[in-house]
Specification:
- There is one protein chain.
- Strand 3 and strand 4 form a beta hairpin.
- Strands 1, 2, 3, 4, 5, 6 and 7 form a seven-stranded antiparallel sheet that branches.
- This protein is α+β, with helices and mostly antiparallel strands and 132 residues long.
- The chain is built from one helix and seven strands; from the N terminus they run H-E-E-E-E-E-E-E.
- It has one domain: SH3 Domains (SH3 type barrels).
- Pfam families: SH3_2.
- This is OTOR protein.
- Keywords: SH3 domain, Signal.
- InterPro entries: OTOR (IPR042801), Otoraplin_SH3 (IPR035554), SH3-like_dom_sf (IPR036028), SH3_domain (IPR001452).
């Protein structure tokens, strides 16, 4: 019994010293985005989802047809890329998703109300994860 405990402790120590994975790096969606302010925190518009969308990875949010979405930024379309906006869902019935900001295809929504113009071009950034 004590032998197996020592083996588990040894394996845990080795795992801490030599991590197996350091993260998954994904392609950048765009180099620039349009925002209402320099930090892209002010709402540009309110959009309504015209159809469902299931997020392809952690950068995106799920949206359901009829759902309202606050839009915070619009990625500047580059060659061979889709056109994506960043936003968060709105409304009490979507309370479990509120506050989660992510990208979604702009072709799946219609703008219902524009609060302010997205006239600031801001570079998108990539967060560099610290090396273990």
């Amino acid at each position: 019994m004590t032998r197996s405990v020592y083996l588990v402790v040894l394996l845990l120590c080795l795992r801490l010293m030599c991590p197996l994975a350091t993260g998954v790096f994904m392609d950048k969606l765009a180099s620039k985005k349009l925002c209402a302010d320099d930090n892209c925190v002010y709402t540009i518009s309110l959009a309504r989802a015209e159809e469902d969308y299931n997020a392809s990875d952690c950068r995106f949010i799920n949206i359901k047809k009829g759902q309202l979405i606050y839009v915070y930024s619009k990625l500047v379309k580059e060659k061979d890329s889709g056109e994506f906006w960043a936003g968060s869902v709105y409304g009490e019935q979507y309370e479990d998703h509120m506050g989660t900001v992510g990208y979604f295809p702009s072709s799946l929504v219609s703008e219902q109300h524009v609060y302010q113009e997205a006239n600031k071009t801001v570079p998108t950034t990539v967060r560099n994860l610290p090396k273990p």
